[in-house]
Amino acid sequence: MSKQNFAKMTARSDWNVYSIKGSFMGSRKRLLGIGLFAVGSLLFAACGGSDTATESVSQDATAVADGPACAGTETIKIARNNWTASAIEVEVVKQLIETNLCNPVEIVDIDENAMIAGMSSGDIDANVEVWPSGFTPEEQAFVDDGSVVNMGELGAVGKIGWFITPNALEQFPQLATWEGLKDPEVAKAFATAATGSQGRLLAMDPSFSSYEEPVAKNLGLDFKVQYSGSEAATQAEIIAATEAGKPVIMYYWMPSAAVGKYNLINLALPKPTVDCAAETDKCDGDYPEDILFKVASAKLEAKDANVFNFFKNFKFTTEDQLSTLGPVEIDGESAADIAAEWIAANEAVWSAWFN
Question: Where exactly are the structural domains of the chain?
Protein backbone atom coordinates (compact mmCIF):
# COMPACT_ATOMS: atom_id res chain seq x y z
CA MET A 1 0.00 0.00 0.00
CA SER A 2 1.35 3.41 -0.96
CA LYS A 3 2.30 5.70 1.91
CA GLN A 4 3.00 8.75 -0.27
CA ASN A 5 2.49 12.12 1.40
CA PHE A 6 1.89 10.57 4.80
CA ALA A 7 4.47 10.71 7.59
CA LYS A 8 5.51 7.25 8.67
CA MET A 9 5.20 6.63 12.41
CA THR A 10 7.42 3.85 13.63
CA ALA A 11 7.99 4.25 17.37
CA ARG A 12 5.89 1.72 19.30
CA SER A 13 4.77 4.42 21.75
CA ASP A 14 3.24 6.44 18.89
CA TRP A 15 0.47 3.90 18.44
CA ASN A 16 -0.81 4.43 21.97
CA VAL A 17 -1.89 8.03 21.50
CA TYR A 18 -4.93 7.36 19.34
CA SER A 19 -8.13 8.18 21.17
CA ILE A 20 -10.93 5.67 21.46
CA LYS A 21 -14.56 5.92 22.42
CA GLY A 22 -14.81 2.41 22.64
CA SER A 23 -13.10 -1.35 18.23
CA PHE A 24 -14.23 -3.40 13.62
CA MET A 25 -13.79 -4.10 13.76
CA GLY A 26 -17.07 -4.58 13.82
CA SER A 27 -18.79 -7.77 14.15
CA ARG A 28 -20.56 -8.37 10.91
CA LYS A 29 -22.87 -11.13 9.74
CA ARG A 30 -25.29 -11.82 6.93
CA LEU A 31 -27.59 -14.76 6.44
CA LEU A 32 -27.19 -17.68 8.78
CA GLY A 33 -28.08 -20.07 5.99
CA ILE A 34 -25.06 -18.89 4.03
CA GLY A 35 -22.90 -19.53 7.08
CA LEU A 36 -24.20 -23.03 7.64
CA PHE A 37 -23.50 -23.91 4.02
CA ALA A 38 -20.11 -22.22 3.97
CA VAL A 39 -18.55 -23.67 7.09
CA GLY A 40 -17.72 -27.06 5.60
CA SER A 41 -15.98 -25.71 2.52
CA LEU A 42 -14.15 -23.04 4.47
CA LEU A 43 -12.80 -25.54 6.94
CA PHE A 44 -11.29 -27.54 4.09
CA ALA A 45 -9.57 -24.33 3.02
CA ALA A 46 -8.32 -23.56 6.52
CA CYS A 47 -4.84 -22.24 6.94
CA GLY A 48 -2.74 -24.71 8.85
CA GLY A 49 -0.73 -22.02 10.58
CA SER A 50 0.32 -18.41 10.48
CA ASP A 51 1.37 -16.64 7.33
CA THR A 52 4.82 -16.25 8.84
CA ALA A 53 6.64 -19.04 10.63
CA THR A 54 6.26 -18.76 14.39
CA GLU A 55 9.17 -20.89 15.46
CA SER A 56 11.04 -17.70 16.29
CA VAL A 57 8.78 -17.12 19.29
CA SER A 58 9.78 -20.36 21.00
CA GLN A 59 12.49 -18.75 23.08
CA ASP A 60 10.25 -15.86 24.11
CA ALA A 61 7.06 -17.74 24.94
CA THR A 62 8.74 -20.07 27.41
CA ALA A 63 6.56 -22.57 29.23
CA VAL A 64 4.94 -21.38 32.46
CA ALA A 65 6.57 -23.12 35.42
CA ASP A 66 3.41 -23.29 37.55
CA GLY A 67 1.01 -23.98 34.69
CA PRO A 68 -0.38 -27.26 33.39
CA ALA A 69 1.93 -29.80 31.79
CA CYS A 70 2.92 -29.19 28.19
CA ALA A 71 1.22 -32.38 27.08
CA GLY A 72 -1.65 -31.36 24.81
CA THR A 73 -2.22 -33.55 21.77
CA GLU A 74 -5.56 -32.37 20.33
CA THR A 75 -5.38 -29.93 17.41
CA ILE A 76 -7.04 -26.63 18.35
CA LYS A 77 -8.84 -24.80 15.54
CA ILE A 78 -9.12 -21.04 16.00
CA ALA A 79 -11.23 -18.82 13.75
CA ARG A 80 -9.42 -15.86 12.19
CA ASN A 81 -11.59 -13.08 10.77
CA ASN A 82 -10.83 -10.55 8.06
CA TRP A 83 -9.47 -7.69 10.14
CA THR A 84 -6.09 -6.89 11.65
CA ALA A 85 -6.86 -7.15 15.36
CA SER A 86 -8.24 -10.65 14.85
CA ALA A 87 -5.08 -11.69 13.01
CA ILE A 88 -2.83 -10.40 15.81
CA GLU A 89 -4.87 -11.92 18.63
CA VAL A 90 -5.03 -15.31 16.90
CA GLU A 91 -1.24 -15.29 16.52
CA VAL A 92 -0.80 -14.51 20.23
CA VAL A 93 -3.13 -17.39 21.11
CA LYS A 94 -1.49 -19.81 18.67
CA GLN A 95 2.03 -19.13 19.85
CA LEU A 96 1.17 -19.31 23.54
CA ILE A 97 -0.86 -22.52 23.29
CA GLU A 98 1.71 -24.31 21.15
CA THR A 99 4.58 -23.33 23.45
CA ASN A 100 2.93 -23.75 26.84
CA LEU A 101 0.35 -26.49 26.32
CA CYS A 102 1.96 -28.20 23.30
CA ASN A 103 -1.29 -28.52 21.35
CA PRO A 104 -0.89 -27.96 17.62
CA VAL A 105 -2.99 -24.98 16.55
CA GLU A 106 -4.71 -24.62 13.20
CA ILE A 107 -5.83 -21.16 12.11
CA VAL A 108 -9.12 -21.25 10.19
CA ASP A 109 -9.76 -18.30 7.91
CA ILE A 110 -13.52 -17.93 8.00
CA ASP A 111 -16.04 -15.12 7.92
CA GLU A 112 -18.54 -14.48 10.68
CA ASN A 113 -21.41 -15.97 8.72
CA ALA A 114 -20.05 -19.48 9.21
CA MET A 115 -18.00 -19.14 12.39
CA ILE A 116 -20.65 -19.68 15.07
CA ALA A 117 -22.28 -22.58 13.24
CA GLY A 118 -18.84 -24.16 13.02
CA MET A 119 -18.36 -23.84 16.77
CA SER A 120 -21.76 -25.35 17.47
CA SER A 121 -20.77 -28.46 15.51
CA GLY A 122 -17.28 -28.56 17.07
CA ASP A 123 -15.50 -27.99 13.74
CA ILE A 124 -14.08 -24.74 15.15
CA ASP A 125 -12.95 -24.48 18.76
CA ALA A 126 -12.86 -20.76 19.50
CA ASN A 127 -12.80 -17.14 18.38
CA VAL A 128 -11.42 -14.38 20.56
CA GLU A 129 -13.01 -11.23 19.13
CA VAL A 130 -16.78 -10.99 18.69
CA TRP A 131 -18.58 -7.66 18.20
CA PRO A 132 -21.98 -7.62 19.94
CA SER A 133 -23.48 -5.11 17.50
CA GLY A 134 -23.25 -7.71 14.74
CA PHE A 135 -24.09 -10.81 16.78
CA THR A 136 -27.45 -11.83 15.33
CA PRO A 137 -30.38 -13.47 17.14
CA GLU A 138 -29.72 -16.61 15.06
CA GLU A 139 -26.17 -16.75 16.40
CA GLN A 140 -27.27 -16.01 19.95
CA ALA A 141 -29.51 -19.06 19.65
CA PHE A 142 -26.40 -21.27 19.59
CA VAL A 143 -25.29 -19.72 22.89
CA ASP A 144 -28.79 -20.13 24.33
CA ASP A 145 -28.94 -23.82 23.42
CA GLY A 146 -25.54 -24.40 25.06
CA SER A 147 -23.61 -25.54 21.99
CA VAL A 148 -21.51 -22.33 21.98
CA VAL A 149 -20.14 -20.78 25.16
CA ASN A 150 -19.67 -17.08 25.86
CA MET A 151 -16.13 -17.07 27.28
CA GLY A 152 -16.27 -13.57 28.74
CA GLU A 153 -15.03 -10.15 27.77
CA LEU A 154 -11.90 -9.77 25.66
CA GLY A 155 -10.89 -6.56 27.41
CA ALA A 156 -11.22 -4.19 24.46
CA VAL A 157 -14.01 -1.75 23.65
CA GLY A 158 -14.90 -1.05 20.04
CA LYS A 159 -16.88 1.47 18.03
CA ILE A 160 -17.94 1.01 14.42
CA GLY A 161 -19.22 4.03 12.57
CA TRP A 162 -19.10 6.36 9.58
CA PHE A 163 -15.86 8.29 9.18
CA ILE A 164 -14.92 11.15 6.88
CA THR A 165 -11.53 12.33 5.68
CA PRO A 166 -10.33 15.70 7.04
CA ASN A 167 -10.74 17.41 3.67
CA ALA A 168 -14.47 16.59 3.74
CA LEU A 169 -14.99 18.76 6.82
CA GLU A 170 -12.71 21.45 5.41
CA GLN A 171 -14.75 21.64 2.20
CA PHE A 172 -18.13 21.28 3.91
CA PRO A 173 -18.32 22.66 7.47
CA GLN A 174 -21.93 21.45 7.62
CA LEU A 175 -20.49 17.95 8.06
CA ALA A 176 -19.89 18.83 11.69
CA THR A 177 -23.19 16.92 12.05
CA TRP A 178 -24.65 14.05 10.04
CA GLU A 179 -27.47 16.25 8.74
CA GLY A 180 -24.89 17.86 6.45
CA LEU A 181 -25.08 14.70 4.33
CA LYS A 182 -28.59 15.75 3.25
CA ASP A 183 -27.20 18.76 1.34
CA PRO A 184 -27.35 17.89 -2.40
CA GLU A 185 -24.03 19.67 -2.99
CA VAL A 186 -22.39 17.55 -0.33
CA ALA A 187 -23.71 14.31 -1.82
CA LYS A 188 -22.52 15.39 -5.26
CA ALA A 189 -19.00 16.03 -3.90
CA PHE A 190 -18.77 12.40 -2.75
CA ALA A 191 -20.00 11.02 -6.11
CA THR A 192 -17.82 8.85 -8.33
CA ALA A 193 -18.17 7.62 -11.90
CA ALA A 194 -19.72 4.43 -10.55
CA THR A 195 -22.32 6.17 -8.36
CA GLY A 196 -23.41 8.80 -10.87
CA SER A 197 -25.20 11.70 -9.23
CA GLN A 198 -25.35 9.94 -5.87
CA GLY A 199 -22.67 10.27 -3.25
CA ARG A 200 -20.53 7.22 -2.56
CA LEU A 201 -20.65 5.63 0.90
CA LEU A 202 -17.61 3.33 1.03
CA ALA A 203 -18.30 0.11 2.91
CA MET A 204 -15.72 -2.63 3.37
CA ASP A 205 -16.11 -6.40 3.20
CA PRO A 206 -19.65 -7.41 2.16
CA SER A 207 -19.51 -10.34 4.59
CA PHE A 208 -19.39 -7.93 7.56
CA SER A 209 -22.68 -7.37 9.39
CA SER A 210 -22.81 -3.72 8.47
CA TYR A 211 -25.92 -1.56 8.10
CA GLU A 212 -24.84 1.12 5.65
CA GLU A 213 -27.49 0.46 3.00
CA PRO A 214 -30.55 0.55 5.29
CA VAL A 215 -29.18 3.46 7.34
CA ALA A 216 -28.58 5.61 4.25
CA LYS A 217 -32.03 4.74 2.93
CA ASN A 218 -33.89 5.26 6.22
CA LEU A 219 -32.16 8.58 6.93
CA GLY A 220 -33.12 9.82 3.48
CA LEU A 221 -29.56 10.24 2.23
CA ASP A 222 -28.77 10.37 -1.50
CA PHE A 223 -25.80 8.01 -1.18
CA LYS A 224 -25.03 4.69 -2.83
CA VAL A 225 -23.08 2.05 -0.93
CA GLN A 226 -20.01 0.55 -2.60
CA TYR A 227 -17.77 -2.14 -1.10
CA SER A 228 -14.00 -1.78 -1.17
CA GLY A 229 -13.60 -5.48 -0.38
CA SER A 230 -11.06 -5.19 2.42
CA GLU A 231 -9.47 -2.94 5.02
CA ALA A 232 -6.35 -2.54 2.85
CA ALA A 233 -8.45 -1.50 -0.15
CA THR A 234 -10.25 1.13 1.92
CA GLN A 235 -6.93 2.55 3.10
CA ALA A 236 -5.66 2.67 -0.48
CA GLU A 237 -8.81 4.58 -1.47
CA ILE A 238 -8.27 7.05 1.39
CA ILE A 239 -4.79 7.79 0.08
CA ALA A 240 -5.81 8.06 -3.58
CA ALA A 241 -8.83 10.27 -2.90
CA THR A 242 -6.95 12.54 -0.49
CA GLU A 243 -4.16 13.08 -3.03
CA ALA A 244 -6.81 13.93 -5.63
CA GLY A 245 -8.53 16.35 -3.25
CA LYS A 246 -11.68 14.23 -3.08
CA PRO A 247 -13.56 13.67 0.19
CA VAL A 248 -14.39 10.16 1.35
CA ILE A 249 -17.08 8.88 3.71
CA MET A 250 -16.61 5.31 4.82
CA TYR A 251 -17.36 2.50 7.24
CA TYR A 252 -14.53 2.09 9.76
CA TRP A 253 -13.98 1.39 13.43
CA MET A 254 -11.97 2.20 16.51
CA PRO A 255 -9.48 1.20 17.80
CA SER A 256 -7.63 1.31 14.51
CA ALA A 257 -4.23 2.63 13.55
CA ALA A 258 -5.73 3.93 10.30
CA VAL A 259 -8.16 6.26 12.11
CA GLY A 260 -5.24 8.02 13.76
CA LYS A 261 -2.89 7.74 10.79
CA TYR A 262 -5.27 9.43 8.38
CA ASN A 263 -6.97 11.67 10.96
CA LEU A 264 -10.37 10.21 10.14
CA ILE A 265 -13.32 11.94 11.79
CA ASN A 266 -16.19 9.92 13.26
CA LEU A 267 -19.49 11.35 12.02
CA ALA A 268 -21.98 10.65 14.81
CA LEU A 269 -25.34 9.38 13.56
CA PRO A 270 -28.61 9.50 15.50
CA LYS A 271 -29.46 6.72 17.92
CA PRO A 272 -31.38 4.00 16.03
CA THR A 273 -35.04 3.49 16.80
CA VAL A 274 -34.77 -0.31 16.40
CA ASP A 275 -32.38 -3.12 17.29
CA CYS A 276 -30.35 -3.09 14.08
CA ALA A 277 -29.09 -6.65 14.51
CA ALA A 278 -32.65 -7.93 14.79
CA GLU A 279 -34.34 -5.56 12.31
CA THR A 280 -31.60 -4.69 9.85
CA ASP A 281 -33.94 -3.36 7.15
CA LYS A 282 -35.31 -0.80 9.58
CA CYS A 283 -31.94 0.32 10.94
CA ASP A 284 -31.83 4.11 11.00
CA GLY A 285 -28.93 5.09 13.25
CA ASP A 286 -25.45 4.63 14.61
CA TYR A 287 -23.59 1.58 15.80
CA PRO A 288 -23.31 1.21 19.59
CA GLU A 289 -20.12 0.91 21.56
CA ASP A 290 -19.15 -2.75 21.65
CA ILE A 291 -17.75 -4.61 24.63
CA LEU A 292 -15.89 -7.29 22.68
CA PHE A 293 -16.17 -10.87 23.89
CA LYS A 294 -14.88 -14.39 23.21
CA VAL A 295 -16.72 -17.56 22.22
CA ALA A 296 -15.86 -21.24 22.14
CA SER A 297 -17.44 -24.53 21.24
CA ALA A 298 -19.06 -26.24 24.20
CA LYS A 299 -17.19 -29.36 23.08
CA LEU A 300 -13.81 -27.75 23.72
CA GLU A 301 -13.87 -28.30 27.48
CA ALA A 302 -14.08 -32.07 27.05
CA LYS A 303 -11.60 -31.97 24.18
CA ASP A 304 -8.95 -30.17 26.26
CA ALA A 305 -9.83 -28.56 29.59
CA ASN A 306 -6.50 -26.69 29.79
CA VAL A 307 -7.08 -24.96 26.45
CA PHE A 308 -10.67 -24.19 27.44
CA ASN A 309 -9.42 -22.55 30.65
CA PHE A 310 -6.81 -20.59 28.71
CA PHE A 311 -9.46 -19.07 26.45
CA LYS A 312 -11.55 -18.08 29.47
CA ASN A 313 -8.57 -16.26 30.95
CA PHE A 314 -7.25 -14.70 27.72
CA LYS A 315 -7.45 -10.90 27.56
CA PHE A 316 -6.35 -8.40 24.94
CA THR A 317 -7.19 -4.87 25.97
CA THR A 318 -7.82 -1.74 23.95
CA GLU A 319 -4.31 -0.62 24.85
CA ASP A 320 -2.90 -3.95 23.65
CA GLN A 321 -4.69 -3.51 20.32
CA LEU A 322 -3.48 0.04 19.86
CA SER A 323 0.13 -0.93 20.60
CA THR A 324 0.10 -3.72 18.00
CA LEU A 325 -2.21 -2.49 15.21
CA GLY A 326 0.05 0.29 13.95
CA PRO A 327 3.12 -1.82 13.20
CA VAL A 328 0.96 -4.27 11.20
CA GLU A 329 -1.52 -1.92 9.49
CA ILE A 330 0.84 0.95 8.72
CA ASP A 331 4.40 -0.36 8.85
CA GLY A 332 3.60 -3.64 7.13
CA GLU A 333 5.07 -5.97 9.76
CA SER A 334 3.59 -9.44 10.06
CA ALA A 335 0.98 -10.25 12.68
CA ALA A 336 3.09 -13.25 13.75
CA ASP A 337 6.16 -11.10 14.42
CA ILE A 338 4.23 -8.44 16.32
CA ALA A 339 2.48 -11.11 18.38
CA ALA A 340 5.88 -12.57 19.27
CA GLU A 341 7.09 -9.12 20.36
CA TRP A 342 4.00 -8.63 22.51
CA ILE A 343 4.50 -12.03 24.13
CA ALA A 344 8.15 -11.30 24.90
CA ALA A 345 7.24 -8.01 26.57
CA ASN A 346 4.21 -9.22 28.55
CA GLU A 347 5.07 -12.49 30.28
CA ALA A 348 3.71 -11.20 33.57
CA VAL A 349 0.33 -10.75 31.88
CA TRP A 350 -0.04 -13.97 29.88
CA SER A 351 1.54 -16.35 32.40
CA ALA A 352 -1.56 -15.92 34.61
CA TRP A 353 -3.79 -17.24 31.80
CA PHE A 354 -2.44 -20.75 32.34
CA ASN A 355 -3.31 -20.92 36.04
Answer: 26-159+291-354, 160-282
Work out the number of other CB atoms within 10 angstroms of the CB of residue 309. Answer: 17
**In Å, what is the CA distance from 259 to each residue of 14, 190, 240, 266?**
13, 19, 16, 9
**pLDDT value of residue 113:** 74
Closest CA to 129 of 33, 215, 253, 245: 253
42-76: per-residue pLDDT in tens? 443 444 444 443 444 444 444 565 678 899 999 99
Amino acid present at 256:
S
Q: Confirm if 178 and 268 have CB atoms less than 8 A apart.
A: yes
Segment 151-177, tens digit of pLDDT: 999 999 999 999 999 999 999 999 999
CA distance linking residue 263 with residue 277, whole number of Å: 29
Same fold, 26-159+291-354 and 160-282: yes
Closest among 133, 130, 165, 168 to 150, alpha carbons compared: 130
Containing H/E element for 178?
none
Q: Provide φ and ψ at 40, rounded to 5°.
A: -60, -50
What is the value of pTM for the model shown?
0.72
Cα distances from 142 to residues 229, 280, 310, in angstroms, run: 28, 20, 22
Q: Looking at domain 160-282, does it have CATH number 3.90.226.10? A: no
CA distance 127 to 81: 9
CA distance 311 to 127: 9
CATH topology of domain 26-159+291-354: D-Maltodextrin-Binding Protein; domain 2 (3.40.190)
Burial class (CB in 10 A: 0-12, 13-18, 19+), 173: exposed
